[in-house]
Design a protein that fits this description.
By secondary structure, this protein is mainly α. Helix content is 55%, strand content 4%. The chain has four helices and two strands.
Length: 96
C-alpha cells in the first residue's frame, strides 16, 4: 500500500465522519476506503492541459531535478485545488 493511497483513504474515512484510527473488525477504519482512494487517484492519472502548463512552468524555473519535479507536481495539484485560478490556497467549491 502506497503512502498516497493511505493518505487519501484516511481523508475519505474522515469525510464519512469516522475516526480513521479506530478499529473495526480488527483493522483501522481507513482501510475500508482503499479501493475508493485508488479510484480517485486513478481519475487524476492523466493531467489536464492546465496542470501540464503549471508543471512545465515550474520545471522551467526549478529544473528537472528531484526538487524541481516535486515543485512541478505540487503546482499541478494546486491548479486542481484552486479550480484553475491563481491566488487561492483553498479548494474551490463546485457550483460556487
Amino acid at each position: 500500500m502506497s503512502d498516497m493511497v493511505r493518505r487519501v483513504a484516511r481523508v475519505l474515512c474522515s469525510i464519512s465522519g469516522l475516526n480513521p484510527d479506530e478499529h473495526s473488525l480488527g483493522k483501522p477504519q481507513w482501510q475500508a476506503y482503499e479501493l475508493e482512494a485508488l479510484r480517485i487517484i486513478a481519475a487524476m492519472r492523466k493531467p489536464t492541459a492546465e496542470m501540464v502548463e503549471a508543471g512545465l512552468r515550474e520545471l522551467n524555473v526549478q529544473g528537472a531535478g528531484e526538487h524541481g519535479l516535486s515543485l512541478a507536481y505540487t503546482a499541478m495539484i494546486d491548479v486542481v485545488l484552486k479550480g484553475g485560478h491563481e491566488g487561492s490556497d483553498e479548494p474551490s467549491t463546485p457550483g460556487a
